[in-house]
Amino acid sequence: MSKRIGIVCYPTVGGSGVVATELGIFLAEQQYEVHFISTTMPFRLKRLYPNIYFHEVEVANYPVFKHPPYDLSLANKIAEVVDREQLDIIHAHYAVPHAICSLFAKQMAKRDVKIVTTLHGTDITVLGIDDSLQNMIRFAIEQSDAVTAVSESLKTQTQDVFETDTDIQVVHNFIDSEERIPAYDEDLKRRLGINMDEKVVIHISNFRKVKRVDQVVEAFSKVRDHVQSTLLLVGDGPEYSKVRQKVIDLKLQDDVIFLGRQDNIQDLLKISDVKLLLSEKESFGLVLLEAMSQGVPCVGTKVGGIPEVIDDGVNGFICPLGDLDCVSDKVVNLLTDESLWNKLSSQSKDIVEQQFQTEQIVKQYESVYDRVLE
Ligand code: GMT
To answer: 346 and 363 in one domain?
Structure first.
């Protein structure tokens, strides 16, 4: 009989939501029965699949509650779905709150369900440092039936911060490069007001402080002194206004295009020459795979899991955090040396094909499921 998996995730735009949704879709194609448990329908779940179900968590909001108790509603919903749908496994994406809620649901449910927790980063690199949450995160990690982390770096950091010897399996992020090759939209550059012979640098993120988008603009400013180019900034978030101001301060208004949140980033990547990710914390950087699968070489910081994705000099370049001269030198090299660009572009695609394909990585999650059900 096919396995029944409940996936608890954030449905919004963001790497963890994308990974959880693509995982669910691929599992469904392998005949698993997949139940998403979340506040809204995961945004990538656009097609109808007969063996994928969505269970909406409705958050109670009575005047007596100072804050709507999302976590309690979620735990209650998970327990309800475990019993009704006879789930075998709950795969929680993020220790807090999803693994914690899943553990609570396991105690409430009548059925014995296994909990697999995937750590995506912020729960460890940001919340793990917060004393008030440390014990709870450690509890989630130690009580789960299996724990995975999206990079070696995140695994090591988790074991160090929480002083735990829990076995953590590294399962990298993945991408289905086959599905993501749109036709080159010849007209897109012109519609964006970019000259056809101009180079394009791109950054895509949720504009949180850790993404250091201001440094992306500063590095681009240095690049712009040498190469006629445009910076595409895709995404929105808390630092957005500051970044806009930075662009004004550096008098780059004519060279930087803010595109806000975009669902369809493949078309934008297709017209881009280099992708920048200069984060101060980054457990993996799924967006790097998205760029590499389109043959866009990446320049990133020597932080977290980024060096596990960018092999320095092979499919892009790595610079020390905050070293913007290094970043601009590498970008200028890529934009001006066609044979270097061609080599790194084709090696980017090869690395995605060889190391980060959906099928290959999902097998690793499947072996985790088999192990906990043994
Ligand atoms: O990067 C973010 O702020 C979003 C966050 C998320 O929850 O989606 O991304 C985290 O998970 C992704 C999927 O595993 C990773 O690729 C990102 O590197 C990680 N972000 C951070 O560690 C800051």
So the answer is: no
